Amino acid sequence: MTKRHLLSKTLCLVSFGMITCYPAISSANAFYLPFYSTAELGQAFSGGAALAQDATTAYTNPAGLTRLEHQQLVISAIGADNRIQFDGVETTPGAPAESGQASSNFPGVIPALFYALPVSNKWTLGFSVTSPYGLGDDYDSDAVTRYYVTYAQAISADIGPEVAYKVNNHLSAGLGLDALYMQLKLGQKYRTQPLTMFDSSVANESSGWGYGWHAGLLYEFTPKTRVGLSYHSSIVENLDGTSRFYLNGGPTFTSNNLQSSMHLPPYTTLSVYHDITKQWAVMATAEYMQWNYVKNDHEFNIATPSGPANINIPRNFHNTWRFAVGTNYQLNEKWLLRTGAEYDQDPTNDRDRDPVIPSSDRYLVGIGAHYQVSKDVGLDAGYAHAFFYNQTIHNTNAATGNTISGRRQMATDALGLQLDWNIA
Q: How many CA atoms lie within 13 Å of 341's alpha carbon, on the beta-carbon side?
């Protein structure tokens, strides 16, 4: 089998597998997952739009593709474990208040694939498959959070072709398209006593596609210093699926016309990279996410015993900043060491925040390393830990009248591996 046939088969198999059967994803901040690259994980995603050292730049800033001299394939997989603990009180109309502790532990794998193909000294093509959005909750069915969520899962796959053009020796520009698949699952309990002996439950599942674009500029002041600017557009996901209401001790009510819409925010990234010496390099990123696009969660035709119902859950997210700094050290011809730190703001507000979306201001610290196995093959490993601020929740569900109040604690650990293959 030739290298070209092997590459083609690898791209097809890995891309199809990521779309159809990759495991559940753990959450990061709100439902945005910046874990697109193991190499970047080790430096806390500080390279952003200016790093442009491998094919992952196809997604972060497609203009950076012009810096790659050879055809390249990058495959990354990051395992993330998100842990949540909630302590608080839940109140249901007509029932005594219930206090308790609820815990969620939701491990998952975040895959990514990138490909770059220089076609001339001016033009480079790219292809990427990433998982930029997701969340995961997994609480006990009798937890104090059960009338809001027992389980929640969001998985995504963003497929994008990219193209980059080298305007001159200093400036490059790039453009990419995004076809983003999203799948949502949500389960929760409903208090139906005294009609039933125990709680009833509802399970909603929907999926669909949304479309957008991303673009960027890369300016190299010198071979040692460059700055990158990239933009990812908003994407509207229109989802269809099924809703089931399981009446305790009674029948199941089904709606096969569940519909929902989801706005994914646009964001702008500005990054700078500088080689201090032949061994030391530093980088920094500032990213602005326009979360104010996320106003409400609209759900239509949810199954209930009295027929399909529509609900509107206010979110009213606000815009946020993410800042990251990092450094690399070239130990020798084989080894490169990385570290970095990141601060990411929480887009939720005190009034509308609920237990479903795990989010809080956070600090992330990462370490990593690259090992050059041969001229054409390199391996990356990275680890990061996210420290979240403890957060207060006080929310009333307008549809059911349930109120929940308490404090939430979270922590995330992420460990990744990455293969870099330069294809001669």
A: 2
- The tokens for 184 are 């949502």
Angle at the Cα of 344 from the Cα atoms of 339 and 350, rounded to 5 degrees:
155
- Containing domain of residue 138, as a range? 3-423
- Number of compact structural domains in the chain: 1
Q: Measured between alpha carbons, how far is 260 from 298 in angstroms, rounded to an integer? A: 6
Of 125, 201, 194, nearest in space to 166 by CA: 125
**E-state strands within 92-150:** 98-118, 123-130, 135-138
> Could you give the 3-state DSSP secondary structure of residue 323?
strand
Neighbouring C-beta atoms of residue 372, cutoff 10 Å: 15
Q: Give the tens place of pLDDT for each residue, 378-414.
A: 999 999 999 999 999 999 988 788 999 999 999 999 9
CATH code, 136:
2.40.160.60
pTM, full prediction: 0.91
Residue type at 388 in one-letter notation: F
Residue 287 scores a pLDDT above 90? yes
Mean pLDDT calculated for residue range 338-352: 96
